[in-house]
Amino acid sequence: MQIFSTACPRNCYSTCSFKVHVDKGKVVNIDPHSANLATPEGVCLKGLAYIERANSPDRILKPLRKNKETNQFEEISWDKALSVISEKINYFQKEYGNHSILYYAASGMSGLLNSFSQKFWEMIGGATTMYGNLCWPAGLEATRLTLGENKHNVPWDLENAKLILLWGKNSAESNIQEMIPIMKAKEKGAKLIVIDPRRTPSAERADMLVQIKPGTDAALALGIAYLLIQTGQIDTDFIDKNVLGFKEFKKAVAYYTPATVAEITGIPSVHIYRLAEIIGATKPMTLIPGFGMQRYSNGGQTVRSLLALSVLTGNIGKSGACWHYANLQSYVFDKVKEPESYYPPKKQEGVFRRAISMAKLGEDMLKIVNPKLKMIWVERGNPVTQNPDTNTILKAFRKLEFRVVVEQFMTDSALEADIVLPAKNMFEQTDIIGGYWNPYVQLKSKLVEPAGEVKPETEIYYLLAQKLGFSNEKIKEYLIEPGDESVKQFLKNKLKEFPELKWESLKEGPQIAKNHEEIAFSDLKFNTPSGKIELYSKQAKQLWNLDPLPTYVPLIEDEKLSDEFPLHFMSPNTKNRIHSQFNNLKIIKLFSTEPFVMIHPDDSDSRNITEGDMVKIYNNRGYVKVKARLDFGIKKSCVALTNGWWIQDGASPNFLSKGRETDMGHGTAFHDNMVEVVKLLVEP
Ligand SMILES: Nc1nc2c(c(=O)[nH]1)N[C@H]1C(S)=C(S)[C@@H](COP(=O)(O)OP(=O)(O)OC[C@H]3O[C@@H](n4cnc5c(=O)[nH]c(N)nc54)[C@H](O)[C@@H]3O)O[C@H]1N2
Ligand SMILES: Nc1nc2c(c(=O)[nH]1)N[C@H]1C(S)=C(S)[C@@H](COP(=O)(O)OP(=O)(O)OC[C@H]3O[C@@H](n4cnc5c(=O)[nH]c(N)nc54)[C@H](O)[C@@H]3O)O[C@H]1N2
Ligand SMILES: [Mo]
User: Fold this and answer.
1) What are phi and psi of 33, to 5 degrees?
2) Is the shortest distance between the CB of 110 and ligand 2 below 6 Å?
3) pLDDT band, residue 489 (cuts 50/70/90)
4) What are the structural domains of the chain?
């Protein structure tokens, strides 16, 4: 038995390090890795489930081809699979041009080697690609506009805060490791406040839960700002020295009186006063906004409004005082920093001149012409369940002539494919990953040989390039040769620029790059056009046509559709999945057996629904049928079904969501989504 250090490459705040026991070529045990100061107590249940995941009998281990007559998948050889794919690519290129092929990738596996996928499509002369992102860009852009860049204090500094605001973040499920410093801070006397329409496991540990009407957080934040200014509980010195636009901001927030804010947010005004009082009086404060809350049509402006509270109270650049959105300090290899990398291509030139919107995938796939899309290549993503408006996506997929999906398991997207290629897992190829919460650069080491006939994408593309008839010289210009040695060489070359990040040390555990700031912005330098914190942002107007000041903008569907569809539909994350991953494993199914919708008893009573009834959640985009779970912990007029359930399990919430971009950053406004719920009289 051997023990190796590695790191989790899932799209999750925590990005845990762990020690993996390997016996006879198989992963058999996973232990904590104490060198990661942010994740010292070991991995979550999902992390432990990697043992089953790596060895699961359900894994796809060979290329598969759909038999058009039986609709069943049949195993084929790699040679055959790649021949079919290269013939199709040749044909579409010749008949319709490169842009008739859509290259789609999402967040299934992080790592520097992912760049070779894009390189392949560049080599063959281009393809239609994606812009925007499903996850976090509205908040990234809001932070960039205001502070100039996305960074925050190290997670363990949280224990120095005296006030922690989990605003639309449910760390106890989505960033389990964050609860460690939060609880340490509490032991030292800090207050924890949660602002969420749901009583979440994080809220269970809080001193105060404020249940807000979805999408109205900007109004609450601006209302608190108004009270802080009124009562002089702001840091005037900090503002004078570091902030642009305070005067304009002060004038604008006069509108957000407690009575107005109570009306908009559904929060009694006494709680609004109380929040302002606590925020004004308790320092240092770390404000932790979640990503869920910015996936609304007004998400970017909402995040700017919240950030104003950290700014007004001078809670920036000090220990315990922090705006804790995303920490991109470990993204040292990225030339184009997020969120700029999500902007659409600017010029109508280059091989990737055509890109479609991540948020509007289905609609754009159907709409785009000259040339129309004929083929899709999907890797590291599950767009059928994870992108909004599943019905339109299915329609768009089924309209194509040819679909390739590279996958570990038979997801709902893989089921749509003509050819499924087996994908590597985290133990089967070495790579370097960063994190967006902890500060580490980490080596995700190859620990076992790929299972069955699995090949990593780098090798798939190499072989496909050969099939397409490219010369060895050309292939070498763009791709790396199959094999561990070339991967290592590529990664070591990447590290050359960073002498402090040594290969041998990375093999032992997480490392921190030079110039990393434990306390972000302690130099009070802000990379904005004015060099100051911009409460007033001209760029907000120039780039996104928004008010230069943070404002509250009502949700689109709340305004237009609430008569017919009176319930706010939320689809947050859940503890034992990463989006659509893990729930197919037996160990996870033990804890998470079937989808259900959480509904307030007042809302269920008026609909004659009782606990465990089958209900239909619907709007004019689609419906899902699930069991009802009655819960006083959810705000009235809100219902919640966690995202990531497979259609095969009975319910993807994205049958209900609209493909719609956020106000800035080309994010995805999943949660601006109204529905109605009815009891099903006949079991489906
Ligand atoms: N276990 C687990 N961890 C994960 C993930 C996962 O799938 N599973 N995914 C990872 C990824 S990619 C992401 S993006 C993050 C996301 O994780 P979080 O940032 O925590 O975001 P969400 O779970 O989407 O939403 C957090 C909370 O916001 C609340 N909320 C919804 N609407 C509103 C609103 O209008 N106002 C307020 N104040 N609250 C609202 C929801 O009820 C929910 O409890 O988690 C990461 N970590
Ligand atoms: N309704 C609703 N929908 C949401 C959200 C929400 O809050 N509500 N949240 C959104 C957010 S924040 C996010 S980040 C997205 C996530 O959406 P996606 O990025 O699509 O993520 P996953 O569901 O994790 O699917 C990733 C897939 O990649 C596969 N995979 C893993 N490793 C590899 C690999 O090395 N190679 C290949 N080829 N495949 C691999 C996995 O098996 C999995 O099927 O979902 C979004 N969807
Ligand atoms: Mo995400």
Assistant:
1) -125, 105
2) no
3) very high
4) 2-55 (2.20.25), 64-127+332-433+442-508 (3.40.50.740), 138-329+523-544 (3.40.228.10), 559-679 (2.40.40.20)
Taking CA atoms only, the protein residue closest to ligand 1 atom 4 is: 174
User: pLDDT tens-digit profile of 12-58?
Assistant: 999 999 999 999 999 999 999 999 999 999 899 999 999 999 999 99
Of ligand 2's atoms, which has the minimum distance to the CA of residue 291?
12
CA–centroid distance, 249 to ligand 1, in Å, is 29
CB 330 within 8 Å of CB 441: yes
Residue whose CA lies nearest to ligand 1 atom number 1: 575
| Cβ pair 393, 58 in contact under 8 A | no
For the stretch 611-640, pLDDT in tens is 999 999 999 999 999 999 999 999 999 999
Q: Alpha helix (H) ranges present in 49-178?
A: 50-55, 78-96, 115-123, 137-147, 171-174
| The pLDDT of residue 562 | 84
pLDDT at 335: 83
Q: Is the CB of 382 under 6 A from ligand 2?
A: yes
Contact 613, 679 (CB under 8 A): yes
Mutate to test the pocket of ligand 2, among 109, 579, 582, 658 (most ligand atoms within 8 A of CB): 579
- Give 6's strand partners: 18
223-263 pLDDT per residue, tens: 999 999 999 999 999 999 999 999 999 999 999 999 999 99
DSSP state for residue 530 in the 8-state scheme:
T
Confidence (pLDDT) at 683: 60
Residues with Cβ within 5 Å of ion ligand 3? 135
Helix (H) or strand (E) holding 324: none
What mean pLDDT is predicted for residues 441-458? 97
Task: Answer yes or no: are the C-beta atoms of 261 and 267 closer than 8 Å.
Answer: yes
Residues lining ligand 1, CB < 6 A? 11-13, 135-136, 167-170, 173-175, 195-198, 200, 212, 214-215, 217, 290-293, 570, 572-575, 577-579, 644, 671
| The pLDDT of residue 539 | 98
Q: How far apart are CA 35 and CA 12, in angstroms?
A: 19
Q: Which tokens in the block code for residue 199?
A: 């009583």
The pLDDT assigned to 484 comes to: 98
Is any ligand 2 atom within 6 A of the Cβ of residue 459?
no
Kindly report the average pLDDT of the chain as a whole number: 97
> What spacing in Å lies between the alpha carbon of 292 and ligand 1's midpoint?
4
Average pLDDT over residues 299-319: 98
Contact call for residues 536 and 32 (beta carbons, < 8 A): no
List the residue whose alpha carbon is closest to atom 14 of ligand 2. Answer: 135
Q: What would the two tokens of residue 443 be?
A: 């080596």
Name the closest ligand to CA 659.
Answer: 2
Instruction: State the pLDDT at residue 681.
Output: 85
What would the mean pLDDT of 71-98 be, rounded to a whole number? 98
pLDDT score at 142: 98
Q: Which atom of ligand 2 is nearest to the CA of 426?
A: 35
Judge whether residue 351 has pLDDT over 60.
Answer: yes
User: In this predicted structure, what is the pLDDT of residue 684?
Assistant: 53
Q: How far apart are the first and last CA of the chain?
A: 50
Ligand number nearest CA of 139 is: 1
Query: Distance (Å, rounded) from C-alpha 178 to C-alpha 462?
Result: 40
Element (H, E) at 288: strand 285-289
Ligand that lies nearest to the alpha carbon of residue 644, given by its number in the listed order: 2
Comparing C-alpha atoms, which of 7, 11, 5 is closest to residue 582?
Answer: 11
Residue 581 in contact with ligand 2 by CB distance below 6 A: yes
Number of helical H runs and strand E runs in the chain:
26, 26
Residue 643 CA to ligand 1 centre (angstroms) = 10
